[in-house]
Specification:
alpha/beta; Rossmann fold; two-stranded parallel ribbon; 16 helices; 2 domains; globular; seven-stranded parallel β-sheet; 13 strands; about 475 residues
């Protein structure tokens, strides 16, 4: 049997990458330009070459790095929510239609409770714009769509026009003279409401699922690969161990807490990687309890494995670890505890933070009871004292009330993922692809078998050090 090479396939290929600032897209780009310098061209929506991820390639090429990148990478102003991906330059657009052979669509908004109108535009209808663009590419060999792994009902009534539902809701809010802040909050809640109506836990997975369904039903004969990675963590080995993109923060103006607390603004953050936010809060002693079943299998995959599984086929690849190399949350907690006991986090005052074992609640009822006893009763007392003192403690009450509201909202959002128990995703297609690759391709550059990961070594010596180095210091 004649052996082929993946690198040979990539030679002289022209590739379009959407969502270029995303974690997987950056790892994908670094991998491509490093292992196949003879790739013809990579079109990106945004330039991201300044990232630390590219330091290995920069060191390898030295003074030639900038010229190499300028020859191989083109930054394209665009937007997946627009027709023709928002590419206004007619000459550039026609050039792309003529030359592009591979499209990686990783454009997404990952906030679990994003505004429903925004999530629909990017995660659902954005997919249709990418598909429409792909159908105009006369040399297209593959559309690789990055979806998401999730559990939920597959029933969806396509007669329900979600776009019209959103437009109606927005028109109602504007007719009532609702403020931008009120519209934002209402549309976030509306997204969760629509998702749960159809059996999905949050706006993110619901809109991503709709996008995938539309893509499968509308692709006609377009060569399509759908990859569904689970929670994506730091790099395992390449280009160096432990690289990870920072958390996504949504920052709003901070003001003093006077007047109606519902109208006040504060800093709100939305974490894409659940496990990393837990680690960051735990090591700083800001997280002492957690709603989680200790035996829950936490399905994750290193970003290297998510990007190496990209062979051409018209099938869906689940890329995760829960089936072939499962890890339970209690094991993760043990690794994190041992790491920060041996090498504690040093706070801004220069003091080492001593960590203890985190209290885990297996049910929402037990967690609510704990919050009631430890925080809600105290908060009610603070409200009474504030009223009795003429509002002297009002700022403290409002601040703590908002924090508690945020905590409970995040708990509700993450609850479906933290109380899964022993749930595993079928990765047979990825297993078959791994086998096919090892038998038919001679490249040593590509590997996407998560069974080779030693979780203890990965967490203790790669992921947590990478998280501290690339994210938490910021």
């Amino acid at each position: 049997m004649e052996l082929k090479t993946i690198l040979g396939y990539l030679q002289e290929k022209t590739i379009l990458v959407t969502g270029a600032t995303g974690f997987l897209a950056m790892v994908f780009l670094e991998k491509i330009v490093k292992v196949q310098p003879d790739v013809k061209m990579v079109y990106l929506l945004l330039r991201i070459i300044g990232k630390a991820l590219f330091k290995v390639l920069r060191e390898k090429l030295g003074a030639d790095f900038d010229s190499f990148i300028s020859e191989k990478v083109v930054a394209v102003p665009g937007d997946v929510t627009c027709e023709n991906l928002g590419v206004q330059d007619f000459k550039l657009r026609e050039e792309m239609f003529t030359e592009i052979q591979i499209i990686l669509n990783s454009a997404t908004t990952t906030s679990f409770d994003e505004r429903y109108d925004i999530a629909l535009d990017v995660n659902t209808f954005g997919v249709l714009h990418v598909l429409s663009f792909a159908m105009k590419c006369i040399k297209l060999e593959m559309l690789l769509h990055v979806s998401t792994e999730s559990k939920g009902t597959t029933k969806f009534n396509f007669q329900v026009r979600e776009k019209k539902v959103v437009e109606k809701k927005l028109n109602e809010l504007k007719a009532r003279g609702a403020s931008e802040e009120s519209i934002r909050g209402t549309m976030k809640d509306f997204g969760i409401e629509r998702a749960k109506l159809y059996g999905w836990p949050n706006t993110y997975v619901f809109t991503k699922a709709m996008g995938e369904i539309f893509l499968e039903n509308s692709r006609h004969n377009l060569p399509l690969v759908i990859i569904r990675p689970t929670v994506v963590t730091s790099t395992y080995k390449e280009p160096f161990p432990g690289w990870i993109q920072g958390f996504t923060f949504k920052r709003r103006t901070k003001t003093k807490m006077y007047g109606d607390p519902t109208k006040q603004k504060s800093y709100i953050c939305s974490y894409y990687r659940i496990i990393d936010s837990v680690i960051a809060g735990y090591c700083k002693e800001k997280l002492t309890c957690l709603l989680v079943d200790p035996i829950s299998v936490f399905d994750m995959v290193s970003s290297n494995y998510g990007c190496d599984a990209n062979q051409s086929s018209i099938v869906i690849y689940h890329v995760g670890s829960s089936f072939g190399n499962p890890i339970q949350f209690c094991d993760i907690h043990n690794f994190v505890f041992r790491h920060f006991t041996k090498s504690p986090w040093v706070n801004k005052d220069g003091n080492a933070v001593k960590v203890g074992k985190c209290t885990m609640f297996r049910t929402m009822a037990s967690f609510r009871l704990y919050m009631q006893i430890c925080f809600m009763i105290h908060l009610q007392g603070l409200m009474f004292v504030s009223k009795a003192s003429g509002g002297y403690f009002k700022d403290i009450y409002v601040n703590n009330s908002q924090k508690l509201t945020l905590v409970m909202r995040l708990v509700e959002l993450y609850k479906p993922y933290m109380l899964l128990g022993v749930v595993r995703f079928d990765d047979n297609n990825s297993e078959e692809l791994q086998k096919l690759t090892s038998e038919c391709y001679i490249d040593a550059e590509f590997n996407f078998d998560p069974k080779c990961i030693d979780w203890e070594d990965y967490f203790m010596n790669t992921h947590i050090p990478g998280l501290r180095r690339h994210v938490m210091v910021q």
